[in-house]
Write a structure and sequence with these properties.
Order of helices and strands: HHHHHHHHH
Number of helices: 9
Shape: globular
Radius of gyration: 20 Å
Number of strands: 0
Distance between the termini: 71 Å
Strand content: under 5%
Helix content: over 70%
Length: about 230
């Protein structure tokens, strides 16, 4: 009887220890990520992105199974890929992100994380197409659509919808035409951003919120502010 009681107590305290450890990891991850985002808000450049990316590398190395650390590591690297002039750096980052995006998807513990991981996957292949449309367009266009559509089906992901809309607009422009659903999808993405912000406040401020202001500016530029 005593052995059974001791076993129950051991399991209870072990569970409490794991919970405390997870809370500590989550707290440190949030503090580091929010500080990096704050730094980039003050000074946004390729050099500052590299600096904050290195911070995420250290955090991800320390907490290999933490979703937030890996998400922002990949996200910052994709921003460098978009802005750097170095072809060698672009290729290195694309290779790194390609190798790690599947891990991020597998690490996702809920629909919110899984949707954001697929949206980031779409962003990765969209970046590749932007790097070299003639070479990478035929190879990765299907990956772009598939990743974004998967993210949207999971939870109406605003980043996935907005980026996929830009991709479709770019494809239409390449064919010297217009994308007819541009404004309709931009307004829908704007609606999703408002809903998503409420969900993030309810869940955790570690979840990404980027893209909302870009959508608003795109609506002003392309849709004459008329809700269709």
């Amino acid at each position: 009887m005593k052995l059974r009681i001791y076993l129950i107590l051991f399991l209870i305290f072990a569970g409490m220890a794991v919970h405390a450890q997870n809370s500590s990891i989550e707290k440190e991850t949030q503090e580091v990520v929010l500080k990096s985002l704050e730094n980039l808000e003050k000074e946004y450049s390729v050099e500052s992105l590299r600096k904050e990316s290195q911070m995420m590398e250290r955090l991800n190395s320390k907490y290999k199974n933490d979703w937030g650390a890996k998400y922002y590591l990949i996200y910052f690297k994709l921003l460098i890929l978009r802005d750097t002039k170095s072809e060698e750096e672009k290729n290195s980052i694309f290779s790194f992100c390609s190798q790690n995006i599947g891990q991020l998807i597998d690490m996702s513990k809920n629909n919110k994380e899984k949707s954001e991981a697929y949206a980031l996957k779409g962003f990765l292949f969209l970046s590749a197409v932007s790097m070299d449309p003639m070479k990478n367009g035929p190879q990765y266009s299907g990956e772009v659509n598939s990743a974004f559509e998967t993210a949207i089906k999971i939870n109406n992901n605003p980043r996935a919808l907005f980026l996929n809309t830009l991709f479709k607009e770019g494809m239409a422009q390449f064919l010297k035409s217009k994308y007819p659903d541009l404004c309709k999808e931009l307004f829908l993405a704007n609606k999703y951003f408002a809903e998503d912000l409420g969900e993030v406040k309810r869940l955790s401020n570690i979840y990404p919120t980027w893209g909302g202001s870009v959508v608003a500016n795109k609506i002003i530029q392309s849709c004459s502010c008329k809700n269709e």
